[in-house]
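_Backbone structure tokens_
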Amino acid sequence: MPESYGATSESAGSAWAEIDEISADIANLRPQVDVILVLMHWGIEYTNKPSERQNEIAHAAISAGVDIIIGDHPHWVQGVEFYGGKFIVYGVGNFVFDQMWSQETREGTIVDLFFYQQKLINVSFRPTVIEDYAQPRLATQEESTRILERIWETSEFVE
């Protein structure tokens, strides 16, 4: 089993995240826009702890000028982080998906972002649960507490 499915000169695969290229693209975009929000498809499936590679890419993107990062792919909710005064959501979990085989794969979150004068001033999470194969609904209070605690346990607050 390969460690990665990134494209190489010898095989097809996905585009690998090259930090230098990402940073250059962000730096070129920064003067043209008010806010840069990046959606990242990344991470290791079925874990709520962001990988070292996710941290590395996120920190480089923030340092290059990104305002907020929203990640997906692991199929579980993952932690959040404040880094350099910016906000990172490493994994929003599942929303409309057919993975009914575990509690974690049935959970997700809607992230509401509130801006004022190009600054992120508030973030709120609305936890969700999938029922009956790809039918999301807002989580109950008990479910919300469990989902938010799962996010909190792997979150970092670094300035």
Notes: Residues 52-64 form the longest helix (13 residues). The chain has a mean pLDDT of 88. Residues 19-157 form one domain.
